[in-house]
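ugh ok fine here u go
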Amino acid sequence: ERIEVIKQLKVLGQIDMAVAGENSISIPDGQADALTFKEAGNFYMKLRTSDGSEAIELHKQLDMKEQNIINAGAISADVLQIDDAAVGLNIDVSASNTGLAKVSLRDNMAAAFDITEAGNSYLKFVTSNSSEAIVASKLLQAGSNLEFTVAGENAILIPDNQADSLVVKEGSAV
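structure:
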C-alpha cells in the first residue's frame, strides 16, 4: 500500500515502523536539500544527494553518549579535545603493524608540528627545506643514552662567549 502526500504531512504523534525487516524513507537524488530536520529556521540536520557531493550535514552538536565512532576513514576536524579531564585523552595506535603508526607533517613549514602550552613552544618540528630540525625549547631530560647513528661527523653545538655554555654535572654536583 502507498499513501502519497503532495504538499505537507503533519504528524502530531509518532511514526511507528513496526514491520519486520527493512523500513526505509526514500529521498530524491540530485538535491542540495533532499531532506532537512529543522525547527522554524533552526537547522539540525540536512541530507544532500547532489551527485559528487553527497553528505549528511549536522548543524548542531553530536552527543554520542560515550559510544565509539568506528570504521570512520579520515576525520577532518579543527580541534580534538578532552571531554573529561579525569579520564584524559589516549591516542591508541597499539594495534598498528610496524611502520604504520605515524604522524605525517606538511613539507617546507617553519613549524609543521608544535607542542605548546599557553603560547610556549616545548617541542617543534621544522620541515623547511634544507633547515629540517626538531627544536626542544625547554629542558630535555634523557632517561638513557644519547646515541648518534649517522655516519660521519656528529656535533653538539653550544653557544659562544658564555661562561656557562656547557656544564657537565653528576646529580647536583658540578
